[in-house]
Amino acid sequence: MEKNIAVLEGDGIGPEIVREGIKVLKAVEKIFNHSFSLYYAPFGATAYFTEGSPFPEKTKAVCDDADAIIKGPVGLAVNDMNTIPQECRPEVGAILPLRKRYDTYVNYRPVRLPKALTSFSPLRKEVIGDGLDILMIRELVGGIYFGDKVEGPATGMDYAKDDCIYTREQVRRVAEVAFQEARVRQLPLTNVHKANVLATSRFWNEVVEDVAKGFTDVPYVSMLVDNAAFQLVKNPAQFNGVMLLENMQGDILTDQAGGILGSLGLMPSACIGPEKGYVEAAHGSAPDIANMNKANPYSMIGSVAFLLDKCLELPEESEVIWNALFAVLEKGFTTIELASQGFNKEKILSTTEFGDMVVDNIKNG
Ligand code: IPM
Ligand code: MN
């Protein structure tokens, strides 16, 4: 297969973890005889400083021409945020425009913790049980993130406003993907909402429940978001299967899930639209540990696995990467943030060593 892939390295730890993702992609490319052409382009705060825009026109052109996009995390340290005008900050000037441009309405965020890795979780053994396999599916281009905003002088500086809007079509299309994934897994779908307060949630539920009529084989659970946050900590395994979340609620609960895994470094993600998609680590750019060769590249390597499956329709290649990733962890190796007190120092890997070991596992099975 011949494909063009745009690579946006991003900020902070972005370039170093993207490098490991690409290393793994190249190993798979060779073994399966594919031909992936990579096109690097600036994106994020670094792009703002070098090009004057966090999502420069030339980067848009590279992404438009690509079959899929690999994106590293972007963003500045909180203390440095004021060095960039609000509209050019990577969040509103790069990430949200990227999502909008490709209408990436499905955001897959898997929460996978096999039994052998449950010690990573800060939750007690009896709470985490036999491990987790939750696919969180977050709606990514609607809701309060993309509604009209009013702030600043227009309000006399006395108030600010974010509109939350969902259309029937926006809810239907993401719900269909979520039910489909639950059907394949033969596991329940938990629909998360705040219908006791929000009109958009009541509407969301009406559409989701209509879609559910086409999936009577999928067990359906409906849960308020505050209760879901509570239940995620109290008994996370009840969610094994698929969770369907709207944009803002999904943003929060997916980070909470990262906490349950023990590290946001274990959160890969894929953002898929009707024509193309991009993959990214679900965490930030961790400027405090940038260029130290200690960031966990798991989320980026897992994102490359997602790219193969969800953007390029190569599920077998994707599975090979997942297996290699878990094999490294199951052999007891990890990066520093997951090493608990008294952890065998020889099993702590640097970013590059982790990537190398995944590649070795891919090559040697
Ligand atoms: C995420 C991030 C983004 C979001 C930010 C950086 C805009 O937190 O992908 O979860 O809120 O969606
Ligand atoms: Mn987030």
Structure write-up:
- This protein has two domains: 1-104 and 273-365, Isopropylmalate Dehydrogenase (3-Layer(aba) Sandwich); 110-262, Isopropylmalate Dehydrogenase, CATH 3.40.718.10.
- It contains twelve helices and 14 strands.
- The protein has helices at 14-31, 45-51, 57-65, 90-101, 125-128, 168-185, 199-212, 225-234, 247-261, 298-311, 315-330, 351-364, and strands at 2-8, 35-40, 68-71, 106-113, 132-139, 149-150, 161-162, 189-193, 220-224, 241-245, 268-272, 277-281, 334-335, 348-349.
- It has a ten-stranded mixed sheet with strand order 2-1-3-12-11-4-5-10-8-9, sandwiched between helices. The protein has a two-stranded antiparallel sheet with strand order 6-7. Strands 13-14 form a two-stranded parallel ribbon.
- Helix 6 (168-185) crosses helix 7, helix 8 (225-234) runs parallel beside helix 9 (247-261) and helix 10 packs antiparallel against helix 11 (315-330).
